[in-house]
Amino acid sequence: MDAYYADEFVLPLPEGHRFPMAKYRLLRDRIAEELPETRLHVAPTAEDEELARVHLPEYIAAIAQGTLAPAAQREIGFPWSEAMAELARRSVGATLAAARSALRHGLAGNLAGGTHHAYAGKGSGFCVFNDVAVAARCMQAEWAQAHPGRAQPLQVAVIDLDVHQGNGTAHIFQGDASVFTLSLHGERNFPFRKEDSDLDVPLPDGCGDAQYLDALEHALQTLEQRFEPGLVLYLAGADPHEGDRLGRLALSYDGLEARDRSVFDWAWQRRVPLAFSMAGGYGHDIATTVQAQLNTWRVALQYHCRWQNAAP
Fold first, then answer.
1. In what order do the strands lie in the sheet with 39-42?
2. pTM, whole model, 2 decimals?
3. Averaged over 40-46, what is the pLDDT?
């Protein structure tokens, strides 16, 4: 299974910054050691024309040239630097590469990504560019080029199970019948001004395994009733975990693994290719976040084997 990483492009953060940048390299090390069947690749960089399928040209230029206003940098949560700009592009490039691999082989992933708070013209909440939105638009464009004359575009389902609502993604695709946005998130968590997804499932503080998995089952049933995707983009946030300092939910490792299995199995049963990204994770102990993410990759590998065994 193909996996794309960008942790070599380290973003220099001030001492005491609350974003756990080290988690990306720690996860890659664990995958290399414990899941050797995974093929690890350095993420390619997303090009301007790819970013421009979602983002405004002036915003792309401001990130590239370092002319982003201080207030806009504060909303993102990262100070601008060349490394910040490069990492943002590589994070998108990793999801693009994973989506292309998934369409060929059934399943692939990004060791980072899930930057769902980014809008077309601004970043927010540690998100510079919206990797999932760019991947959806680029895969639709590439599919249309490969299937000339098809009236209907590639249908893309975004299943966002980060603990925070994917407000940027929801806003980008509002009114677009070719992309279905599904979000399960903490009702009282960031962002405090939510956007309208195609299906929002707000959850109370302290929500545990049983309640969460029941809500997910009903959400996937609703998705199936309303939409028939040709590609799933899955945000497998680790921040619903009970040990997360920003999450406010209370899923166990077993609950998160059951969540992942539900999504991978939903796609597999319908033979819908799936590309996934790690999205958020802010454990009081960074090791808990890395463990939750590693568990996601372990389940993904099991389903990738199913795809390979079913290949003609």
1. 39-42, 2-5, 107-110, 274-277, 231-235, 156-160, 179-186, 199-203
2. 0.96
3. 97
